[in-house]
Amino acid sequence: MDRSQRREQLVAVGREVFAQRGYAATSIEELAARADVSKPVLYEHFGGKERLYAAVVDREMARVLERFTSALAAGGSPRALLERAALALLDYVEEDTDGFRVLSRDSPGSYSSLIGELARRVEHPLGEQFGARGHDPRLAELYSQALVGMVAQVGHWWLETRSPGKAEVAARLVDLAYNGLAHLDPDPALRHRDG
Predict the structure, then answer these.
(1) pLDDT tens digit sequence for 133-169
(2) Is the C or the N end of the chain the one with fewer CB within 10 Å?
(3) Contact present, 30 and 17 (Cβ < 8 Å)
């Protein structure tokens, strides 16, 4: 293998092992053995486990952001955008399970950064819809965080259950979000507060 092919192989092996065992339980010896290389080869390419892990996390974040951006780029109605966004994340969970495990299990800072970035990508189209419907578009930031957080949390749950099917999960998420957004109170207040 040339240098770039070896690097790709090490990232692929790292992704698999980190997903299976977690960062803390993975040793440099195991990574090298699974890649069928010596430890010095791994150190030569990444300098250690930490930098290999960072390369895996960076790659996975780019993958999920690309999926999400493509889903939103097609435009369309608010409901269509919600459907594509929910399916994009669930597709990632289904098709790139190891990557999702790496992002959501061992890298809480990276995962929260990812959720924040996904929410920022939803914020603009949501703000446009809010403005068109007479709601304060500045609230799009709050609602985009809520929507993306909801889908991400359900994706994490669905990773382990895989039931109901992906299309039904997406449909139910969109139903909850869309029907909730369609009936927003422009000036909500808590109705049941103690004290």
Answers:
(1) 888 999 999 999 999 999 999 998 999 999 999 999 9
(2) C
(3) yes
Q: What is the DSSP letter of 105?
A: I
The DSSP letter of residue 64 is: H
CA pair distance 36, 32, nearest whole angstrom: 6
The pLDDT tens digits of the residues spanning 71-110 come to 999 888 888 988 999 999 999 999 999 999 999 887 667 8
Any long-range contacts for 41-44 (C-beta under 8 Å, 24+ apart)? 41/6, 42/10
- SS3 call for 186: coil
Measured CA to CA, the distance from residue 105 to residue 98 in angstroms comes to 10
